[in-house]
């Protein structure tokens, strides 16, 4: 039924992997920027734009988004290396 739709390669790899369903769903949400980070809550108008949207984990005054939390945050960079 959906054979005419274009498949995104990371998603195809993700769903065919042998990891648990919880990890698959989390990675899918991360791929498509659907995790409830503070920037997503602002985009959905669940938080005021002038509210404190800074990362609570670090003290560098950086806005919390998926790029920061999973790739540029100091702890995340140490985990990836």
What would you say this structure looks like, in words?
This protein folds into 2 domains: 1-32, no CATH class; 35-81, no CATH class. The chain is 48% helix and 0% strand. It is built from 5 helices and no strands. The chain is globular. The protein starts with 8 loop residues before the first helix and ends with a helix. Residues 5-80 form the Reverse transcriptase zinc-binding domain. Pfam families: zf-RVT. This is Reverse transcriptase zinc-binding domain-containing protein.
Instruction: Provide the β-strand percentage band.
Output: under 5%
Structural Rg? 16 Å
* Tally of distinct domains: 2
Describe the main β-sheet briefly: none
Helical/strand content category: mainly alpha
* H-E string: HHHHH
Cα-to-Cα separation, first versus last residue: 41 Å
The portion of residues assigned to helices is: 40-55%
Number of separate strands: 0
Pfam families: zf-RVT
Domain Reverse transcriptase zinc-binding: 5-80
Protein name: Reverse transcriptase zinc-binding domain-containing protein
InterPro entries: RVT-Znf (IPR026960)
